[in-house]
Input
Amino acid sequence: MANINTKPSPSQPELTPQDLFNINERYETESNKRLRHDGNAQYIEPSTSATPSDPYTQFSKDPWVDPSKIEILQTKFPSKRTSVLIIGAGWGGLQNAIRILTISKIPATHIRIIDSAGSFGGTWYWNRYPGLMCDIESYMYLPYLEETGYIPRHKYSYGPEIRWYAESVAQKWGLTSSGVFQTTATKIVWDEGEKVWVVDLVQRETEMQIRASFVVLASGVLHRPKLPLIPGLLEFKGDMFHSSRWDYGITGGSEKDSSLHKLRDKRVAVIGTGATAVQAVPVLAKWCKHLYVIQRTPSAVDVRDQRETDIEWFRQHVASGPGWQRERIKNFHRHFALDETEKPGLNLVDDGWTHAPGLLGLTGNPNGPKAPDEIPAYRARLVELDTPRQHSIRARVDQQVHDPIIAEKLKPWYPTWCKRPAFHDYYLQTFNRSNVTLIDTDGKGVDKIKPEGLIIGDHTYDVDVIIFATGYQAPPSGSPAEKSNMTVIGVNGVSMSEEWALKGPTTLHGVLDAKFPNLFLSGPHQASTSGNYSFNLDELAKHTAYILAECKRRVKGTKFAVTPSMDAAEEWAMQVMMHSAPFGVVTGCTPGYFNLEGDIDKVSPERMMILARSGLWGWGIENWIDVLEKWREEGSMNGIVMR
Output
């Protein structure tokens, strides 16, 4: 149980105004050097390639599927109809199905869950790279532990266990047969006369059109890999793949066996140093002849302190009574507070997340700014709160990396809230190995890929394998239609993609848009979020299931359409905007996933209003849940229209 990183970080002296000025100046300098004119357009998403012959599609093919085990569409939709169609078979899809089953009382036989993958799991189906584990404590992250009685094997679950658990959850609630895999929806169109969605499905070469009374979009935010548009990328003669489609045929080993023996005589380049690379690099380094780690921006890598679960301890101190998992999650959220006096006296999770006050910039809180003119002072306060942690993380680099020149390059210079925090017990020490070279590009990235390797600045690096650890489509970009990679046509032929881009969403609570009846959303637009995203998805699923159950009870069997009223949707949009100020601190962040590679800072005032309308509930997830629970308790379905 002991923390394996036993050296204490040096304490930081009290910050002076000059210290804070210097830190902010350094943050701005580091951010500016990484800004690019093409912003988020520097990436391509292989999954959106127009034709199978597109050479980029090689990066999004499914390496895990067994085609012989995939049931055909005709078998899954014999009548070409279903009551509920859920798009996405990750945690969002599973939790929506379970809540609809248990709250709305729609049986599993009337629910279909489609996914382009070969089984349940979502991002945990696709990602199987060596070293993969969840960075959120498993006792919170894995849903329904109280209901299943399952005890996670480690404090932070490894990828294979999470995927197995997702499949076991589907089995427990009788949803295994509801899965329709290797299948995508390319277009859904609302039929007002019949009060159904007309859905175009594609499964490999088979096309089918079905009708669904209700559709849930649960395609997630970590499922569409992106590649940097580096000149010459397709000219490389060696092997290359994206980390979310790990090719063990090239590396050797398997997701349960990290013996990457085929790399013993290989020179390997990993492009990217985010959450994926932080976990995969230590494993790769043990097996490669030589490993080049290509860095544009260093991650802020804190202690993970991974450990096996002591079953008796778990039963006595974690699963100690009814409702324990919800209370643990609430305790976790309450530690993201502006003032120490606001935090609970007992820290149940007690890990790097709950000791990172700067994460308020990502989680929001009700004691933050109420208006735009209060944001600068709030940001200054957060920098002051956050600086000791970032100082400790930079000091940890000095402790663990022997070469002071390399150590300087691995130090993050940005506030905690600008990038998702990373946690690992061995990543930094990896750069002490003689077969590992950090190539810091000073924020520029790779200049060109040639047939034999990489060109970075004035240097050429010959490599045999390139692994792109370059992440996924950024959450702020696009409507749920884009996230699902399909066309959505609602009332009077309105396109979701066009409408949301032009005016923003018109939802109530982030789950139901006034212009798209019977179409339930899974956030995060006009809703809230948590570092523990599976919990966020479950709260949205509960709200969806409640609305659906109440509509069924009141209409009693008749076909119907349910939406918010336009007045209610506009009022909710105004509430989202009025509560959005705490997230204003992301402006000026170093370019990355959260701010569309800096594009958010370049939008016009008019566009910024649409982004604010499309954004998150800035007073934190527990406050947002309170709003939803009070609405449900009131019981009148205020703002909901059925026809």
Q: What stands out?
A: The CA atoms of residues 31 and 590 lie 4 Å apart.
